[in-house]
Amino acid sequence: MHAQVSTTLKPITKITPGTVWKDTNGEVIEAHGGGIMQQGNIYYWYGENHAKGEGNKTGISCYSSKDLLNWHNEGVVLPKEALPVAFRDSGACERPKVIYNDRTKKYVMWMHLVARGHLEADAGIAVADQPAGPFKYLYKTRPIRYNYGYRGGSARTYVGDPEEETKGNTFRDMTLFKDSDNKAYVIYASEDNATMYISLLNADYEAIATPAVLNKTWVRALPGAFREAPAVFKADGWYYMFTSGTTGWKPNPAKVYRAKTMLGKWEDMGNPCAGDEQQTSFRSQPTCVIPAPGRSAGNFIYMGDRWVGEALAQSTYVWLPFSVPADGNIRLQFYKEWSF
Ligand code: GAL
Question: Which residue, by CA, sits nearest to atom 12 of ligand 1?
Answer without folding.
Answer: 248
